[in-house]
Amino acid sequence: QVQLVESGGGVVQAGESLRLSCAASRTIVSSNIMGWYRQAPGKQRELVANMRWGSINYAESVRGRFTISRDNAKNTVFLQMNSLKPEDTAVYSCKVNFYGMDYWGAGTLVTVSS
Question: Which of 14, 34, 63, 72 gives 96 a disulfide partner, CB atoms 3.0 to 4.6 angstroms apart?
Fold first, then answer.
């Protein structure tokens, strides 16, 4: 069993930045697929950014503002979010694939006020 714990969410004003972290209970060196998703109130969950076999992809709405990265030594995946907008308000969750199985964290709430 793998546990993922997100942190770093909070309430910020438009234009500010946040850095989300997703800490795994085991090494992430063996994972080649990991990503961040978000779900806004009343909307479906959507992909924000992911890393797949060395390739990085971003949703069009966050490209140029958000950066996904990983630190294998810390078993952590990060999401740096700059120039936040009110429409970025959502619960952000990470997903990591280990040997064909997807694991999800519970999520962290990001609220951006105008």
Answer: 34
Q: How far apart are CA 102 and CA 52, in angstroms?
A: 13
Q: What are phi and psi of 67, to 5 degrees?
A: -135, 125
Please state, in angstroms and rounded to a whole number, the distance separating the CA atoms of residues 94 and 91.
Answer: 10
Q: Can you tell me the distance from the alpha carbon of 61 to that of 89, in angstroms, rounded to the nearest whole number?
A: 13
Could you report the per-residue pLDDT of 1-26, keeping only the tens digit for each? 899 999 999 999 999 999 999 999 99
Q: By CB neighbour count within 10 A (0-12 exposed, 13-18 middle, 19+ buried), where does 47 fall?
A: middle
In angstroms, what CA-CA distances link 12 with 18, 46, 48, 51? Answer: 8, 21, 19, 26
Listed in sequence order, the residues at least 6 apart from 98 whose beta carbon sits closer than 8 Å to its beta carbon are: 2, 26, 30, 31
